[in-house]
Design goal:
mainly alpha; single chain
Length: 192
């Protein structure tokens, strides 16, 4: 029983000496293999030392230094860890989950609907009628013109000015690509 304790102590001393003599060089080597990821390099260093602890026969090898054996084990562990990461789906951090809207939460769409309803109420009766036909009933310009009893050109004009008025009422909902084209179209429409 005393021999087993003495052997365990010797192994622990040998492992501590191994870490002291080769740990810094091994950590620098692993930092290169992990592209500077210190946490990953330290994890791999620890796993390399665990392998050395699990294989006491490596201490009795025919070589003068344990360094080549340690570097080989560390390199293989780094390769295995990289392959393992590439084989599984990417990890999602808590920040991404916190920033992602809950698909069950209808708050944003409800608020947007209320904002749109309020903005539509500010339009004239004629503009609301055109938008109702085109956007809510899904009619074409010609179908909306027949339903409202007005020319197709008037439907186009009223829908244009109605949407322009809505974009002023709903500035937070404006898309950057359509706002730049709307402003250039608006300049040409007002100059007519």
């Amino acid at each position: 029983m005393t021999t087993a304790t003495a052997t365990a102590t010797t192994d622990e001393r040998a492992l501590a000496e191994l870490q002291r003599d080769h740990g810094p060089a091994l950590l620098n080597f692993l930092l290169g293999l992990t592209y500077g990821d210190r946490q990953r390099a330290e994890d791999l260093l620890q796993e390399t030392l665990v392998r050395a602890w699990l294989h006491p026969e490596a201490f009795e090898g025919p070589f003068e230094s344990m360094r080549p054996w340690l570097f080989t084990v560390a390199r293989r562990l780094a390769i295995d860890a990289r392959r393992s990461r590439l084989a599984r789906p990417p990890e999602v951090s808590d920040g991404v989950l916190a920033a992602t809207a809950d698909p069950e939460d209808r708050t944003e769409s409800t608020v947007a609907a209320l904002d749109v309803r309020q903005a539509v109420r500010t339009l004239s009766r004629e503009h609301r009628a055109v938008l109702a036909q085109i956007y809510f009933r899904g009619l074409s310009v010609n179908e909306a013109a027949r339903a409202l009893g007005i020319p197709p050109g008037t439907v186009k004009s009223r829908s244009y000015y109605a949407l322009r008025a809505l974009s002023r009422e709903l500035p937070g909902y404006r898309r950057s690509s359509s706002s730049s084209s709307a402003s250039s179209d608006g300049a040409s429409a007002t100059s007519r």
